[in-house]
Write a structure and sequence with these properties.
The complex is a heterodimer of chains A (about 210) and B (about 160).
Chain A lengths: L1 H17 L5 H6 L19 H22 L5 H29 L3 H14 L11 H8 L10 H14 L21 H16 L6
Helix pairs in contact in A: 1-4, 3-4, 3-5, 3-7, 4-5
Chain B lengths: L3 H8 L12 H4 L2 E8 L2 E6 L9 H14 L4 E6 L12 H10 L1 E2 L27 E5 L7 E6 L5 E5 L4
Parallel strand pairs in B: 2-3, 4-7
Antiparallel strand pairs in B: 1-2, 5-6, 6-7
Classes of the chains: A mainly alpha (about 210), B alpha/beta (about 160).
Bound molecules: zinc ion (ZN).
């Protein structure tokens, strides 16, 4: 629910900045697949609890230093959203990290599940740090964050939790990205279908 | 003419939809009010949590009350900074929570400490400090579920956010 709230804050602001008469709901519900620029990590599917938690944990670990830095953005509204979101994200990170440790340092079965989930998802983590020309322009204006500067804090927290969980990162250096270019994995289509069904079936409906 | 203090007093009557024993003033959701004229008022509110589903409802309730009091134009501003914290909950609010059966927020250790001790929360029924946390998440995301080891009653704890 906090994540939906954070997304709402960001999309409302995006709609306002864009100023083309689109609302936050239009942005959330009425874009086509290649118009979404989320990282592929966050679109990976639920089902296996270890996969859900590892996905959430990697994302939480990224959001901590990200919002910490964004609090100091030259853009006042982004800074305010970051300040608000950071408080919630600390809670999320604690929650997901404790699960990683419980599972990693738990039974043989839970250790195997969380190890499999790490092997499945770690290759998506590098994309969190992807930056394009728009990012670079906004970084030079002090609005956006140079994501490369977040890597040390991110890696340190990842290692800290993995060590307590008696887990290791996969050896493979394989990295996947494309989400930030509008290219998505198979699951994204299913997600969108479910998310957009109501707006497509009943255009302009409101709760 | 109605002054700001009058408005603050009016808003004491607007309950929080999820914890109806608390007013929006007790919770610290209303940050500022400004009387523009006899018929016009501006209200600045801040959400407790980003995803709080009650915010639209709170706005609607404030609007209804102020309309009833004779205002014709009511403008809302939502601010995110400074971000809401349970430190803004009034002492009166904490007492009302306790009387209602929900343990009010206590000072907690930093959220970034893993497996830190769960805070000692006093049972709202019998007052015992011998309680345990059953789940980080209770009936709503802002509450945790506890149980008293002495009287055995389960109860909600309003978590500390800061
Ligand atoms: Zn008790």
């Amino acid at each position: 629910m906090d994540l939906i709230g954070q997304a709402t804050s960001l999309l409302e602001y995006a709609a306002q900045v864009e100023d083309k008469g689109r609302s936050a709901d239009d942005l959330a519900f009425l874009r086509f697949e290649n118009q979404y620029f989320n990282t592929q990590l966050v679109e990976q599917k639920n089902g296996d609890f270890a996969v859900t938690i590892v996905r959430q944990w990697i994302f939480d670990t990224f959001r901590l230093p990200f919002y910490e830095a964004l609090q100091h953005s030259a853009d006042k509204q982004l800074a305010a959203i970051a300040e608000k979101s950071l408080k919630e994200t600390k809670y999320h990170w604690k929650h997901s990290s404790e699960w990683i440790i419980r599972m990693g340092d738990g039974t043989e079965e839970s250790n195997k599940r969380v190890t499999d989930a790490l092997n499945l998802l770690w290759k998506f983590s590098d994309e969190l740090f992807y930056m394009d020309d728009v990012d670079k322009e906004l970084i030079s204006q002090g609005v956006a964050i140079d994501l490369e500067t977040l890597r040390p804090a991110f890696n340190e927290r990842i290692q800290y939790v993995l060590q307590q969980a008696t887990l290791q990162l996969p050896d493979s250096k394989w990295k996947l990205n494309g989400g930030r270019l509008g290219r998505h994995t198979e699951h994204f289509g299913h997600l969108l279908a479910e998310m957009q069904y109501m707006q497509r079936a009943y255009p302009n409906m409101e709760w | 003419m109605v002054n700001e203090t009058t408005i603050w007093n009016y808003l004491e009557e607007v309950p929080d939809p999820e914890v109806p024993v608390l007013s929006v003033i007790d919770l610290g959701i209303v940050r500022a009010v400004k009387v523009i004229s006899e018929k016009e008022v501006e209200v600045t509110i801040t959400p407790t949590y980003s995803g709080c589903p009650a915010m639209n409802y709170i706005e609607k309730n404030i609007r209804e009350l102020l309309t009833e009091k004779g205002f014709e134009k009511i403008t809302f501003h939502t601010v995110l900074s400074p971000a809401w914290t349970t430190d803004w909950m009034s002492e009166a609010g904490k007492e009302k929570l306790l009387a209602y059966g929900i343990a009010p927020p206590v000072n907690e250790v930093d959220k970034l400490i893993l497996f830190g001790d769960a805070p000692v929360v006093r049972c709202p029924q019998c007052g015992s400090e011998n309680t345990k946390m059953l789940s980080q998440f209770g009936s709503t995301a802002c509450k945790a579920l506890y149980q008293c080891n002495d009287c055995l009653e389960p109860f909600d704890y309003f978590k500390c956010l800061r």
